[in-house]
Amino acid sequence: MADLVSHKDEVKVISKRFGQGAANIDRYVELGGYAALRKALAMSADDIINEVKASNLRGRGGAGFPTGMKWSFVPKQAPKPKYVLCNGDESEPGTCKDRLILEHDPHTVIEGVVVAGLSVGAKIGYIYIRGEYRYLSVIMQKAIADAYAKGYLGKNILGSGIDFDVFWHGGAGAYEVGEESALMESLEGKRGIPRIRPPFPAVVGLFGGPTIINNVETLAAVPHIINNGGQWYAELGTPKNGGTRLFCLSGHINKPGVFELPMGYNLLKMINDVGGGVWNSRKLKAVTPGGSSCPVITADECDVPMDFDSLMKIGSMLGSGGVVVLDDQTCMVKYAQRIMRFYQHESCGWCIPCREGTDWLKKSLDRFHAGAGIRKDIDNIQYLSENMLGRTFCPLGDAAALPTISIVKKYRDEFEAHLEGRPCPFEPEGAVQQLPVLAGAH
Amino acid sequence: MLKHYPVKRSVLVPSLLYAQDEVGYLSEEVIAEMAKRCELTELEVRNVISYYSMLTTKPRGKYNVQVCTNICCMLRGADDIYRHVSKQLGIGHKQTTADGKFSLESVECIGACSWAPAMQVNYDFHENLTPEKIDKILEEYAAKAK
To answer: Is the ipTM here above 0.95?
Structure first.
């Protein structure tokens, strides 16, 4: 479906089977597939966890939590069954990498789920795929059936005496379900409303049992780590940031696409070299480095290694790998407005700071971009956002607040340029840029 | 599917979507049937339906055109793309054409950021859109709908 691209600086680990027909199980095995499962079956649970710890693999869903450590939180003895839950509810604006993994290499995800299960003593894994990705559910359904037929799943897998079941599960359109506790609620057949923590999912998760929840890309990295060793994977990246990452380049760039680059790859180089530079010979203005929820960074801040810690140092986040490039003709007020409109739409309304915060922020930003903003709105937008931070059940409130705060702080002059009824300086022909349907719909 | 889960209601969300694909929308009958199968009240089923953006209790066109207008698509001209589709179909957000062939929606990120601007018609992705490409796509669906 989606076009594949490539660049000489790529280090293909997760993407090495893309475009090679690996959705077919025989082809997958021919390309070295399910070797990690064989190897893991001969390892102890602690050895698997230690290998993953040594790899410095960190959660690819956005939070960057060390995967091996997450697995080690699962209690050895538990009164209820344990589960592995693979999060394929990819819906962070800017992110389109899990789609490629699920399309081109579904068996790696299955293999990753089983290996994760072996490390904690789970017997069941679920692969949750967002509802819009129906064609990927079809691919996954076949992959799972083939894996059962060949003895990689089911009773006594590969003669090991261990039983393991994997099922796929479809969503029906909800960004918030990508949050781990909402994901479990959704899989239990409910509204995707987040749960309070503690208890954390590793202790009380899906159906009340201890649960490992990992992103598709995280689990897809696991078989490679088992095959080649944690040390090998760690050395591909930077200290504490092991391996490679699928970066989704989008926005005002000449060559958008999903590229697999080592952790710590320079962002400016990624834009100018890998992505072919900013389009239409324009200048770079800003970048959203890891999906819409990350604070925006200015062109001057872009000379930075793309790893979790380096981006944290400059006040942003590596997030989910969605690199959105903005050129110098972009109105930052409009950008902030569109981001907020998204979060307002996706807020579940369960907790008040997020429900009210995103709604009032959307109203303020809509009005501001339409030329009806007043000076105190600028501080008010920042104040409202800062008061949402850390005060919501799930990180959706933070996700809405962080980019907004960064845009107000770094591009205050653009907000001021919209004041006193002046039309948007970037789109003077139409002050009201809102799609009329959206203005009426919410 | 039921035996995949320790609780019955786990099948609810995916089953609702499949039922909707069959019937076109989640009618009173579908809701009553799903409630019975999952041993829930109809209210509980409706409560779940209202949370998920793909689920609808109102009939739509045979082909539901969902134009992504989120940031990555917006930066590459999604507003114009949306207006073009709207003009060609003669309908607005969440409206259906008189002949029942098409519905239109402006939707949030569909995961096609690196191939923006993009839209989905039912479950099919259409990417790197231009007005010319859209005209061709809509023509093809119109022909199929006959």
So the answer is: yes
